[in-house]
Specification:
The chain is mainly alpha-helical. It has 2 domains: about 150 residues, Tetratricopeptide repeat domain (Serine Threonine Protein Phosphatase 5, Tetratricopeptide repeat); about 110 residues, no CATH class. The protein has 17 helices and 3 strands. The structure holds zinc ion. Zinc ion binds next to loops.
């Protein structure tokens, strides 16, 4: 008995027990990680079976044979097709890539890329499912969250878009962008119900929303459009919105609005005794006096990525930035000589 007690009191016994506990914890953690990764891998593979009806086309099969499942080459090809706008081929290539023997991180990365292509191609439900699967495995993935928010926005699920925005806020997205996106979702959701006072308050705190609100009001509530326009002191940055307003509306609202007066002069509705403040409008006004009919051509450039578009956009298709339009305009020959808007 004394021998046994002596053995337990031996400091070497304590050290051996400690080493055994550490070894046990290390082994348990190792096997648990293997099990968790296997479970995640199985979950993603099971998820991909939902998209089994998407066949790999001959080009993808041929590419796979030629490149021998060379992942970087296939990825490059899929990205190139996506950039060229050939989304169908890009999707099929990503499905082909996902059928290769990939590690966990690479499988998730390609799954996210497939979700992105689905989003660009307009398959919003599929994009949503894929992005939710990616986020189930990588909840702190800002790119997937951002794309999910835009997917919800396109699906007009503004509450869900706000939830995704909340997650981006926790990940440290700029407070100014969070505020603007939140106000934008609110306005998109309740534009037809919002009262005048609340709308004015919202626009006061989010000046970037003015062009969006005025564009909508021009169609739905012209009297409120003029009220807000006269209060907000907007100028050339919304010239495209003002340019196609009917003649009688422009003439009725030009008093104490130098920009509207300039537009009326540029369109030949009135003769001004002063020069127009905007060079292009003055040029058009002078052309009118000479009997030459001109018009304006608008170009919409994104302040963030500098991509340009022929139409006004709310969210840039290139970089996803919200209300980042920078308007430029050039004088061109009028297509119809009366220079009247074709409404
Ligand atoms: Zn952009």
């Amino acid at each position: 008995m004394d021998n046994i007690l002596h053995f337990f009191r031996d400091p070497l016994f304590g050290v051996a027990i400690l080493i055994a506990i550490i070894a046990f914890i290390a082994l348990a953690t190792y096997f648990w990680n293997i099990h968790a990764k296997k479970r995640q891998q199985d979950s993603i593979e099971h998820f991909m079976k939902l998209f089994d009806n998407m066949s790999i086309d001959e080009v993808a099969q041929e590419t796979l044979l030629k490149l021998g499942e060379s992942l970087p080459a296939l990825q490059f090809l899929a990205e190139t097709y996506s950039r060229m706008g050939n989304y169908e081929r890009s999707m099929k290539l990503y499905v082909a890539i996902l059928e290769c023997d990939l590690d966990y991180a690479s499988r998730l990365k390609n799954l996210q890329s497939l979700g992105e292509v689905y989003f660009c191609a307009g398959f919003l439900e599929r994009a949503k499912k894929i992005l939710l699967e990616v986020l189930k495995n990588q909840p702190r993935n800002p790119q997937a969250l951002c794309l999910l928010m835009r997917t919800y926005e396109s699906l007009e699920l503004y509450d869900e878009a706000c939830d995704a925005l909340g997650c981006l806020e926790e990940l440290g997205l700029e407070a100014k962008k969070i505020q603007l996106n939140r106000a934008y979702f609110f306005l998109k959701k309740s534009f037809m119900q919002i009262d005048e006072q609340s709308l004015l308050q919202l626009l006061q705190h989010n000046a970037a929303l003015l062009s969006y609100a005025l564009d909508k009001l021009k169609i739905h509530n012209l009297s409120l459009f003029w009220k807000i326009f006269k209060q907000c002191n907007q100028g050339e940055e919304i010239l495209d919105i003002l340019w196609n307003i009917k003649k009688d509306e422009l003439l009725k609202n030009m008093y104490e609005c130098p920009l509207i007066e300039d537009i009326c002069a540029a369109k030949g509705y009135i003769k001004l005794s002063r020069n127009c403040t905007v060079f292009e409008l003055e040029a058009l006004s002078c052309l009118q006096k000479a009997g030459i009919f001109g018009d304006l051509e608008f170009i919409y450039c994104c302040k963030e990525c500098k991509e340009s578009y022929p139409l006004r956009f709310e969210r840039c298709l290139g970089c996803g930035e919200l209300l980042s339009v920078e308007l430029t305009f050039i004088v061109r020959k009028a297509k119809n000589e009366t220079c009247q808007p074709l409404l």
